[in-house]
Amino acid sequence: MLKGYVLVISLFFAIFLNSCSKELYFSGVSENSLNEIKQNYQSQEYTKEDIAKLIGSPLVQENSGNLWIYNLVKEQGNASFKKTIYNKTLKLKFEKNVLRSVEEINVN
Fold this sequence. Notes:
Blueprint: H1 2-22, E1 24-27, H2 31-40, H3 48-55, E2 60-61, E3 67-77, E4 82-95, E5 98-106
Antiparallel strand pairs: 1-3, 2-3, 3-4, 4-5
C-alpha cells in the first residue's frame, strides 16, 4: 500500500517537472517576424508603417523617430521555475522613413 502512494506521488512529481521545463514564454517581438525583417530588410524597403504592422510599436523611440528600440525575452519554465534563454535589445535605424539597419544586442 505504501508503494502505491510512493508510485503515485513520484509519477505526479515527474509529470509536474516535465511540464514545467517545456513551457516557453516570449515577450516582445515574434521570432518569425524578426527573422523575416532581418533576412529581407536590405533587399526590401520596409517603411516605419510596415515595421509597425509586422512587430508592433517600439518600446522606445528616439525624438527624431529614426531609432526604434524593442526588448526581446525568451524564458522557459513556469511561474515558479523560469529560466531566461535569451534577453536581447533590438535596434532598428531608419533613414528617410526606410529601415536601413537592424542590430541585436545581448543583455545577458
